[in-house]
Amino acid sequence: MAEFRAFIAWVTGKRSMSEAAAMFGITRQTFAARTAWCWNVEPGMPGVSRSHRYVMADGTYVPYGWCLLVLTGDDGRPVKWQWCSAETKPAYPQLFKRVKRPGLLVCDGGQGCLAAAETRWKGVAVQRCLVHVLRNTRADLTNKPKSEAGKTLLKLARKLVKVKTSDGAAIWLAELNEWHTEHGDHLKEKTDARQDPEHARGRKWWWTHERLRRAYFRLVKLNRDGMLFAFRDPDIVRDGDSLPSTTNQLEGGVNAVVKRTLGHHRGLSEKH
Q1: Which of 2, 28, 102, 251 has a 20 to 30 Å separation from 133 between CA atoms?
Q2: SS3 sequence of the chain
Q3: How many domains is the chain built from?
Q4: What is the pLDDT of residues 12-42, one digit of tens each?
C-alpha cells in the first residue's frame, strides 16, 4: 500500500518521481520497476445508488485521440465516466446507463447527448450551458461585430450568462424581443446572385447576414425548446433551489483536473 500511495502521489502530480523514489531510498528506475504493477489497478466507480436534483454531462479530449465523457451529480462528484473516440450518439447511452432520472440535465447541447438523454429519461428537463451558448454566439458574430445589430446582440449574449433569477430571465427575453423589433428587417435582407456572383455557389439568392441570423435564431430556438432557462423553470425548481445554468462545475472541477494530471506526464504511453 505504501508503494501504491507513492505511485498515486506521482501520477496525480503531488510528487515528482524522484521525490516518490526518495521515500523508499531507491532510484527512479527502481521505483518505476517496483510500481509497474500499479498500472494494472483499474479505477472503478461505486454503483449509482441515488437520484440527483441535477446531473452534468460533458466530454473532454485527451492524448491519443481519446475522449472522456463524464457525468457528475448535484454534489459535484463524478457519477460515471465513459471512454470513447468522440462525443457520438452510441457513446452517451453507455454514460447514462443505469443512472436514475435526474431533475435536470445540464450539458453543452450536443445531439448525441440530447438523443441519449431523451431515450434514457424521456421528457427530462435540459439546461443548455449558457457559457457554451455565449461561445457559439461569439463564434458567429466575432468579438468585434461591425454592424450595430451584431454589436447589440453580442452584448445581449454576454448578459445571458449573468441571469440568475426568473425575473432576470424575463427581462432578458424582453430585451431579445426588443432587439428583434429594432433589427428584424435587417435579418430579412437578401443578396441576389447577380449582385455577388463570386459567392453564389449555384444559389440564386441567400440571406445577407447569415451568421447574424444563425446567432439570433439559435437563442430563439433554445428558448422555444425550454433549454435556455430550464434552471429557473417553476415545474422543476423547488423553494430555495439553486440549479446551475452552466457546466462550469464539471469543466473546472473534473475535466480541468484530468487535463492537469495528464500535463504532468506528457510521456505516458497510450495504455497508461
Answers
A1: 102
A2: CHHHHHHHHHHCCCCCHHHHHHCCCCCHHHHHHHCHHHHHCCCCCCCCCCCCCCEEEEEEEEHHHEEEEEEECCCCCEEEEEEECCCCCCHHHHHHCCCCCCCCEEECCCHHHHHHHHHHCCCCCEEECHHHHHHHHHHHHCCCCCCHHHHHHHHHHHHHCCCCCHHHHHHHHHHHHHHHHHHHHHHCCEEECCCCHHHCCCCCEEECCHHHHHHHHHHHHHHHCCCCCHHHCCCCCCCCCCCCCCCHHHHHHHHHHHHHHHHCCCCCCCCC
A3: 3
A4: 888 999 999 999 999 999 999 999 999 999 8
